[in-house]
Design brief:
Layout (H helix, E strand, L loop, with lengths): L2 H18 L3 E6 L4 E4 L1 H7 L3 H4 L4 H5 L2 H17 L8 E7 L5 E13 L2 E10 L1 H22 L4 E5 L5 E4 L1 H7 L20 H13 L8 E6 L5 E11 L7 E8 L1 H23 L3 E6 L4 E4 L1 H6 L6 H4 L4 H8 L6 H14 L3 E6 L5 E10 L5 E10 L1 H71 L8 H31 L8 E3 L1 H18 L3 E6 L5 E3 L1 H17 L6 E8 L3 E8 L20 H5 L8 H11 L3 E7 L3 E9 L8
Parallel strand pairs: 17-19
Antiparallel strand pairs: 1-2, 1-5, 3-4, 4-5, 6-7, 6-10, 8-9, 9-10, 11-12, 11-15, 13-14, 14-15, 16-18, 19-20, 20-22, 21-22
This protein binds adenosine-5'-diphosphate.
Length: about 650
């Protein structure tokens, strides 16, 4: 073949190829005018080659809104040789002759021939493909929306259990990233103890022997190793070509399980607490079925059945069976009924036929919505407490009675005291009157016996002298007694008052000692005075002289031959002190506290027949008390005595 022949052959072959090509082939010149339009292009765009050739391609097939862009691209290429769209697969919209829009796939090449620039486009209508693709994408989106956003974890395994897919919820709940592929496959995410169960269930699903409504509870370990509980259902879709796998729906029930566990824990705790208390507790549910009873409850009522076996029984029936245990069986039943109808807490007592007394608390259990969710009964044995209370009441009553009788006898005593005081006063009055009445005749007896003794009234015989002497001595003694009695009565009734003045007790004591010196000397008694300097006392000198005189006279009288009597005068900030100590017979210890009572004479003085009236110390006591002072005695029988008088250093400030 000549060169020309070869060229013609190639050309013919190219033309034939173009004509027969499945793709539309369109060639345009630099001005965009169509030079070639093959039959496939005719089919795609609906223009015959004769209609198309010679017309602007842009006007033919480029949608109006893209035409400017198309022309600008052509110009740019022609000017710069730079073609952004050349030699690559493009997808774009195009318009057909009938105005309908299609999507085409297009590859453009450029070449020069005869000094001209040409472009050839190879194109294919992909509208159908596009739509299918879109539909696919939409369905994929729907699937994603349903599956990926489902709160259940959806997993697809193949027939061998290999892991194909897990939805978004899987990584959200377990913390594993999407695409996480552990070495041991999906099984290694399971709690080891649950692996056998999971395998068995999977095989049953594959074999079709397990129905989708039989969930398996499986534990999954999350990325931190914490346990999550999943309720899992498997659906065999191996025969469904679209899925070709086993679909697992897993629902996270961790919260439910932990709530259940918590509930179980609380129930156990409650049972533990109830089991350990003395209080008998019975809890009914809203249908009056027994929900909880503790051991103390069954013990209180002597139930032959343990507490846990009572659970679920009808409480009304139980009450009917137990009513015989109560003293008032019908009252027991109506009491329960009343509580349940009133639905307010009540505490009351019930008495058992065996004598025990039980205190019962009723507490209604209310649900959050204000409905009754159950009833709680609590029984405690208060028999001992009741008995103790009764005993206490008895005791209290006895005490009240005792107090009443004490009060009555106190009142009687008071009456008695009053009459005794009255008697005492009368007696003092009598004594005072009698003494007063006695004094005058006694004085005249003394005076006349003195006159008789005087030789002026005529001589007396020796015997008459003796008689007159006896009369005088006894009359003198009587006068002293009468004087003492009268003084005492007046001191005690305070009908005479003291005439206090500053008194030098040392001087007073020295005079008394001097007066008694002869009597002491007669018994060879050493009578001494031991005075210390001291301020004058505020006292009635006549009465204090009487006190010291009585004490010194007693000391000399109750001290035997050759004894010793010492008078001590002293003072401190608080008291003036007068002490008279002797080495005489002393006073029996058990009589000391009666010594200052009028007419009291110690037993040893009476035995020794020492004369006396028992009035001297009573007079001393009355005088000292009137001065606000104290008098007391220390004595040892057979050894001697010390009488101590304290007069207040500041007058009227002390009393004992
Ligand atoms: P009288 O001395 O007149 O009996 P008093 O009232 O002075 O009466 O004394 C009462 C009694 O106290 C005395 O009888 C005596 O038993 C006892 N008594 C008083 N002073 C002394 C004393 N110094 N030693 C022993 N006994 C005394």
């Amino acid at each position: 073949m000549t060169k020309r022949e070869t060229f013609d052959f190639d050309l013919a072959r190219s033309k034939a190829r173009i004509r027969a090509a499945l793709d539309g082939v369109i060639t345009i010149d630099a001005a965009g005018v169509v030079a070639e339009w093959n039959p496939a292009a005719e089919r795609i765009f609906g223009y015959k080659a004769d209609d198309a050739v010679g017309r602007s391609m842009a006007d033919l097939i480029v949608p109006e809104q893209l035409r400017d862009q198309h022309r600008a691209g052509m110009r740019r290429f022609l000017a710069s040789g730079e073609g952004r769209v050349l030699d690559q697969r493009l997808e774009m919209p195009a318009v057909r002759a009938d105005g309908s829009e299609i999507t085409i796939e297009l590859t453009i090449t450029s070449f020069t021939a005869g000094g001209e620039q040409w472009f050839t486009g190879w194109t294919r209508d992909i509208t159908g493909i596009k739509e299918t693709e879109l539909e696919l994408a939409r369905s994929e989106q729907r699937f994603q929306a349903i599956v990926e956003h489902s709160s259940d974890v959806i997993t697809i395994l193949d027939g061998e259990g290999n892991w194909l897919y897990t939805s978004q919820a899987g990584s959200r709940l377990t913390g594993y990233q999407k695409g996480h592929d552990p070495e041991g496959g999906i099984l290694s995410l399971l709690h080891p103890d649950d692996v056998p169960l999971a395998l068995e269930a999977f095989q049953e699903v594959v074999a079709g022997t397990r129905l989708p409504d039989e969930p398996v509870e499986l534990r999954i370990l999350d990325v931190n190793g914490s346990v999550l509980f999943f309720e899992t259902v498997g659906i065999n879709m191996l025969d469904n070509p679209a899925v070709n796998g086993v679909v697992l729906h897993a629902r996270d029930i961790t919260e439910r399980r932990s709530a259940e566990q918590e509930l179980g824990l609380r129930t156990n705790q409650l049972a533990g607490v109830l089991g350990s208390i003395q209080l008998g507790v019975l809890v009914e549910d809203e249908n009056r079925r027994l929900a909880i009873a503790n051991e103390a409850f069954t013990k209180l009522f002597g139930s032959p059945v343990p507490a846990e076996e009572l659970v679920g029984l009808d409480c009304q029936e139980l009450a009917e069976q137990a009513k015989g245990l109560f003293v008032d069986p019908d009252g027991f039943l109506t009491g329960i009924q009343d509580c349940i109808t009133r639905v307010t807490p009540v505490t009351e007592e019930v008495v058992l036929v065996d004598g025990r007394v039980l205190e019962r608390d009723y507490v209604p259990v209310s649900s959050g919505e204000g409905e009754v969710a159950g009833h709680i009964w609590m029984y405690r044995d208060v028999t001992d407490r009741k008995r103790a209370q009764e005993e206490r009441e008895h005791l209290l009553e006895a005490e009240r009675q005792a107090r009443r009788s004490i009060e009555a006898s106190q009142a009687a005593l008071e009456v008695q005291n009053r009459s005794l005081r009255e008697l005492d006063r009368l007696k003092d009055e009598v004594v005072a009157t009698v003494s007063h009445e006695l004094r005058t005749p006694l004085t005249s007896i003394v005076s006349f016996s003195e006159l008789l003794d005087d030789d002026e009234t005529g001589p007396l015989t020796a015997r008459q002298h003796e008689f007159v002497g006896t009369i005088r001595r006894n009359a003198d003694r009587l006068i002293r007694v009468v004087n003492d009695l009268l003084l005492l009565a007046r001191l005690e009734s305070q009908t005479i008052s003291l005439e206090p003045e500053p008194v030098d007790l040392r001087e007073l004591a020295a005079l008394v000692v001097a007066n008694h010196a002869p009597a002491a000397a007669a018994k060879h008694i050493t009578l001494e005075i031991d005075s210390h300097d001291g301020a004058p006392a505020w006292a009635d000198p006549v009465r204090i002289d009487q006190v010291i005189g009585n004490l010194v006279a007693n000391a000399v009288k109750f001290t035997g031959d050759g004894g010793q009597v010492t008078v001590r005068i002293g003072a401190d900030d608080t008291w003036h002190r007068i002490e008279v100590t002797d080495t005489g017979m002393g006073i029996p210890a058990d009589e000391l506290d009666q010594l200052f009572q009028r007419f009291y004479r110690a037993s040893n003085a009476r035995v020794h027949m020492t004369p006396g009236t028992g009035l001297g110390l009573a007079v001393c006591h009355a005088i000292v008390r009137l001065h606000g002072g104290q008098i007391d005695v220390e004595s040892t029988e057979g050894e001697g005595s010390t009488f101590r008088v304290l007069l207040p250093a500041v007058p009227g400030d002390r009393s004992g």
